[in-house]
């Protein structure tokens, strides 16, 4: 699996060197209008910068036709303090075998989820003049809107636009777009609490003390990434998001009701069907590293669709920027020593940002 990814994500950024492609990328970027701008212009065919070769897509299209089902875990009792053996076992199984699961009855009211999705929709469907003010590729900006953060590095652009909100706990609310300010602040409040519960559950699933992952700062840093996937005139030629694994410790994802997210399981692409009120949870590369490969960070991607827009909001828990991370001692032994070297989080994040989405092989890079 990893081998195939590194063949496709070659690290050869020839796209950078092709002047024709560069020109097209720049022209697209300069509109500040993203993919939504192309759709508004009623383009009949998607521009070349989004088109993937048929060989790659032939493989991509044999998907979603499998009997596998992403695990669904009912968290009804999670707020009572101690978790039942059954829930811990379900989380352990899902995180070790799938790296992905959906949670229901997680305690976040569905109005909070619906309003977040609506807020992202309103922002993206706002007048271009207003949206443009947020358009930026400067990673140091806490709130930034753009299309394809890796536009100039990836081999193919993805059919989506994204509003990114970094370190939301240090945010002045005024920095957020007015259209989604209230909904985002409310959503962040809830997601933070759920994140802490999930790290407690994962600690127990690993056989550690309930606060082990929390003490490592796993729930400390986070980035909220709001994606908008417009309807695509040629979904068979492109993707909403290239296959990748997430870099952080854990991702909590809210998705609207169009089924496009797929996870790679036992060599097959499995749909992550939207369930009203549910959230999708997946293990990131950093948690695979600190769990010494016990928990799995699994590749996933987003298919482009004729229907749209599809909206999703990912909360990436990134770990604490002041920490160095390495495999947890209790999870290593003489027979199973640490499989990864120490990760300095700031360096790890910089490395991630310097690559394209389908080029992330943090695991291989830190393997020892
Ligand atoms: O939009 C989605 O469903 C997935 C987004 C995703 O994988 C990501 O932001 O890393
Ligand atoms: Fe992802």
Question: How would you characterize the overall build of this protein?
Answer:
By secondary structure, the chain is of the alpha+beta class. Helices cover about 35% and strands about 20% of the residues. The chain contains 13 helices and 14 strands. The chain has helices spanning about 1-10, 15, 20-30, 35-40, 55-60, 85-100, 110-125, 130, 180-205, 210-215, 285-290, 345-355, 360-365, and strands at about 70-75, 100-105, 145, 160-165, 220-230, 240-245, 250-255, 260-265, 270, 280-285, 300-305, 310-315, 325, 345. The strands form three sheets. Strands 1-2-10-7-12-5-4-3 form an eight-stranded mixed sheet. The chain has a four-stranded antiparallel sheet with strand order 6-11-8-9, with no helix packed on it. It has a two-stranded antiparallel ribbon with strand order 13-14. α6 (about 85-100) links the parallel β1 and β2. α6 (about 85-100) packs across α9 (about 180-205) and α7 (about 110-125) packs across α9 (about 180-205). The longest helix is centred in the middle third of the chain and has 25 residues, at about 180-205. The two termini are about 20 Å apart. Residues about 1-15 have low confidence and may be disordered. Fe (ii) ion binds near residues 244, 246 and 300.
């Amino acid at each position: 699996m990893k081998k195939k990814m590194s063949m496709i994500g070659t690290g050869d950024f020839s796209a950078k060197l092709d002047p024709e492609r560069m020109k097209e990328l720049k022209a697209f970027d300069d509109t500040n209008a993203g993919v939504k701008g192309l759709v508004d212009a009623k383009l009949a065919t998607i521009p070349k910068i989004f088109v993937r070769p048929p060989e790659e897509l032939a493989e991509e299209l044999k998907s979603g036709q499998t009997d596998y089902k992403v695990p669904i875990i009912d968290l009804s009792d999670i707020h009572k303090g101690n978790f039942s053996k059954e829930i811990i076992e379900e989380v352990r199984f899902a995180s070790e075998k799938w790296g992905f699961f959906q949670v229901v009855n997680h305690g976040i009211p569905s109005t909070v989820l619906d309003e977040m999705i609506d807020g992202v929709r309103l922002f993206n469907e706002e007048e271009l003049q207003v949206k443009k003010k947020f358009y930026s590729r400067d990673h140091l900006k806490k709130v930034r809107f753009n299309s394809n953060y890796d536009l100039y590095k990836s081999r193919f652009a993805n059919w989506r636009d994204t509003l990114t909100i970094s370190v939301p706990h240090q945010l002045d609310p005024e920095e957020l777009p007015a259209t989604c300010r209230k909904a985002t602040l409310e959503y962040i409040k809830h997601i933070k609490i759920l994140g802490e519960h999930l790290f407690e559950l994962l600690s127990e699933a690993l056989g550690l003390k309930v606060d082990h992952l929390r003490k490592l700062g796993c729930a400390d840093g986070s980035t909220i990434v709001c994606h908008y996937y417009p309807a695509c005139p040629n979904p068979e030629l492109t993707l909403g998001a290239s296959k990748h694994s997430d870099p952080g410790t854990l991702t909590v994802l809210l998705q609207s009701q169009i089924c496009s997210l797929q996870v790679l399981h036992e060599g097959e692409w499995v749909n992550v069907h939207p369930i009203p009120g549910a959230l999708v949870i997946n293990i990131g590369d950093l948690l695979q590293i600190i769990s010494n490969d016990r928990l799995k960070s699994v590749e996933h991607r987003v298919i482009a669709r004729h229907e749209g827009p599809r909206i999703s909001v990912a909360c990436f828990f990134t770990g604490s920027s002041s920490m160095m991370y390495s495999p947890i001692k209790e999870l290593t032994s003489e027979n199973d020593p640490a499989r990864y070297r120490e990760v300095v989080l700031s360096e790890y994040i910089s490395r991630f940002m310097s690559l394209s989405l389908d080029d992330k092989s943090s695991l291989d890079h830190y393997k020892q």
